[in-house]
């Protein structure tokens, strides 16, 4: 496996050369990542040269529209899906809400949706509200000690009434990577569709959605080195079955059917910078291939680096007195999003870490149901430490030293 060139990676992110951030290590990436230079450059160019209504015949408008189309097509190709199966919206929360309204029209009272209590509320709340329409909501519950989702329990929840199964690729507090392909196969065998919240997974490598088999895959570009957009993959068979949620004259356009608001032209165009960055990573590490192969290569490159850095951190906290590590203690089974339940409120601990140059967060992180299920008071919350592939070994060592002082 090729080793990640961390110096090359960090050179792609202006934040690492920013004087005001000098001496600080960023460990709240699960809340939003640094933005890569390629995205910033595209956003600046759009606002300075192409900030006009796109798709008109004059040059600035034509180029702006082309950039928007290329962003969608290139990201879709990296994820192994067709260009019109990927769309943008203002946020993943908003995208999920729109999807829930579409399923509300598709489903009948008495039919069921399975949700988990491991989720961020964005991929749980909109579906749960459909109970008001007579839809049965079944909760796939986590293990209260480990936060693990057991597929044997899912099997007991599935029957001919279930139309949709909603679950996270990984939780934003538990961190364990769920077996998406296995869960999807189980749901499909029972005649149900699958909606996967990938917000906490995608920053660690874009998945090949075609290989996973998921019908819906959602993530947030602002947590994946890009602008503040929600990215939504809806496979064609389901997308054409669900009722149109946009203007009636957009009903025949798959990527417009579930975006009732007009797109943010500049941010959609700038999202092509994410693809620029992934391709630059692949090229620098001497990889060539199709877009899907590039996506897989970059995914594995990022994950290998993160696993290497994550294990020492897990080892440093897993047996510490007064600290409860949520999720697995083995790095290869989880994302580098590490939540620690303390014997005190978490936010003041995050403030103490800031005194040592560590940027981290404390709170419930919209995972109230998961924390309550594990016996943690959401008001006290958890200390969350999260990083991505651009984090260095020196920064992890600095974090561990700071944790020794604070905890």
Automatic annotation (TrEMBL):
<dbReference type="InterPro" id="IPR015424">
    <property type="entry name" value="PyrdxlP-dep_Trfase"/>
</dbReference>
<dbReference type="InterPro" id="IPR015422">
    <property type="entry name" value="PyrdxlP-dep_Trfase_small"/>
</dbReference>
<keyword id="KW-0663">Pyridoxal phosphate</keyword>
<dbReference type="GO" id="GO:0008483">
    <property type="term" value="F:transaminase activity"/>
</dbReference>
<dbReference type="InterPro" id="IPR000192">
    <property type="entry name" value="Aminotrans_V_dom"/>
</dbReference>
<dbReference type="InterPro" id="IPR015421">
    <property type="entry name" value="PyrdxlP-dep_Trfase_major"/>
</dbReference>
<keyword id="KW-0808">Transferase</keyword>
<dbReference type="Pfam" id="PF00266">
    <property type="entry name" value="Aminotran_5"/>
</dbReference>
<feature type="domain" description="Aminotransferase class V">
    <location>
        <begin position="26"/>
        <end position="399"/>
    </location>
</feature>
<keyword id="KW-0032">Aminotransferase</keyword>
<protein>
    <submittedName>
        <fullName>Aminotransferase class V-fold PLP-dependent enzyme</fullName>
    </submittedName>
</protein>
């Amino acid at each position: 496996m090729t080793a990640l060139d961390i110096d090359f990676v960090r050179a792609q992110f202006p934040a690492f050369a920013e004087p005001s951030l000098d001496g600080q290590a960023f460990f709240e990436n699960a809340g939003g990542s640094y933005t890569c230079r390629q995205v910033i450059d595209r956003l600046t160019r759009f606002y300075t040269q192409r900030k006009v209504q796109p798709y008109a015949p004059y040059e600035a408008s034509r180029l702006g529209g082309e950039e928007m189309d290329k962003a969608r097509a290139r990201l879709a190709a990296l994820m192994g899906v067709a260009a019109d199966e990927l769309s943008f919206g203002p946020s993943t929360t908003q995208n999920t809400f729109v999807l829930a309204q579409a399923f509300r029209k598709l489903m009948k009272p008495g039919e069921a949706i399975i949700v988990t209590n491991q989720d961020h509320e964005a991929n749980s709340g909109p579906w749960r509200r459909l109970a008001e329409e007579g839809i049965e909501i079944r909760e796939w519950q986590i293990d209260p000690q480990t936060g693990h989702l057991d597929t044997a329990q899912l099997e007991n929840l599935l029957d001919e009434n279930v139309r949709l199964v909603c679950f996270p690729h990984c939780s934003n507090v538990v961190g364990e990577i769920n077996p998406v392909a296995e869960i999807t196969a189980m749901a499909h065998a029972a005649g149900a569709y699958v909606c996967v919240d990938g917000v906490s997974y995608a920053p660690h490598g874009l998945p090949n959605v075609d290989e996973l088999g998921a019908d819906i895959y959602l993530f947030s570009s602002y947590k994946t080195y890009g602008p503040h957009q929600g990215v939504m993959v809806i496979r064609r068979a389901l997308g054409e079955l669900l009722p149109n949620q946009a203007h009636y004259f957009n009903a025949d356009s798959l990527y417009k059917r579930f975006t009732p608001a007009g797109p943010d032209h500049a941010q959609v165009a700038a999202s092509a910078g994410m693809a620029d960055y992934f391709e630059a990573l692949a090229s620098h590490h001497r990889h060539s291939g199709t877009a899907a192969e590039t996506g897989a290569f970059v995914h594995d490159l990022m994950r290998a680096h993160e696993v290497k850095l994550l294990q020492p951190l897990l080892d440093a906290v897993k047996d510490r007195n007064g600290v409860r590590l949520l999720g697995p203690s083995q790095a290869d089974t989880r994302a580098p999003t590490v939540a620690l339940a303390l014997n005190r409120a978490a936010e003041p601990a995050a403030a103490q870490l800031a005194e040592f140059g560590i940027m981290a967060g404390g709170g419930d992180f919209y995972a109230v149901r998961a924390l309550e299920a594990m016996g943690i008071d959401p008001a006290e919350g958890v200390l969350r430490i999260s990083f991505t592939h651009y984090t260095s070994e020196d920064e992890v060592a600095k974090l561990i030293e700071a944790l020794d002082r604070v905890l």
